[in-house]
Amino acid sequence: MRSSKRITAVLYVCCAALLIGLLIFPIRSGAVRLLIIVSAVVTVFGAPLFLRRKSARIVALSMVTLVCGAIAFLPGRSPSMRQLRSAYVDALRCYESDRYVWGGENARGVDCSGIVRAAWFDAQLRLGIRSANPQLIRSALSVWWFDASAKELAAGYSGRTHAMHSAKGIRANNDEGLLPGDFAIVARGVHALAYLGNQTWIEADPGMGKVIVIKTSDANAWLDSSAVFVRWSELDQGTGHP
């Protein structure tokens, strides 16, 4: 019996270590996401089984199940548009100076479309947890699960984004019609930059090898490439609460 419990404990620790390693690993693929989900389920639902008292195990498992059920099924509510936009801009800024990694989606490494999506995930998840809003948490998890290139972000991303207008370039547009949290897809879907407001943009620049913040007056070739300006649908002025 003790040997069986020891093996179970070792397997649990290995699964928890795998989860931590996968979360740190910057590149996401379908297989990596699936492994994260499986290891997370085992880690979360397996933890209460190590409690000594049976009653405590039942209570802990019930609480975990209730929380997961609430996130999955409770309707939630529309978030404050202004609050969500502010949270998104703050999340974008958190990636400044992080290294560029093609296919990366976290602080260990991020690419141009990755920072746009990763910061959106961060903002929704944090705000959803703070405000106990399951709708935001579900939306964050949906963005995390479904990957998207810069070109797909401009094409609607299954209704999650919409293109507002196009211009010869970011510099030529002179921030017309933009709000903080909007983003630009430039060079016909090759690259993405997110708008922070006040003539300021943030991007995971492959040439610089890191995330940089630039002004529209800076010497940067992406600023003069053909641009499509895009907004997350949940940040549209016609939705949410001001």
**Mean pLDDT across all amino acids:** 93
Kindly give the count of domains: 2
Q: Which class of the largest domain in CATH terms?
A: Alpha Beta
Structure class: alpha+beta
What report would you give on this structure?
This protein is an alpha+beta fold and 242 residues long. The chain contains eight helices and eight strands. A six-stranded antiparallel sheet has the order 3-8-4-5-6-7. A hairpin with a 2-residue loop joins strand 1 and strand 2 (109-110). Mean pLDDT is 93; it is low at 238-242.
In brief:
47% of the residues lie in helices and 17% in strands. The protein is built from eight helices and eight strands. Helix 1 crosses helix 2, helix 3 packs across helix 6 and helix 4 crosses helix 5.
Task: Please tag this protein with its features.
242 residues, alpha+beta, elongated, endopeptidase fold (from Nostoc punctiforme), two-stranded antiparallel ribbon, 6-stranded antiparallel β-sheet, 2 domains, disordered C terminus
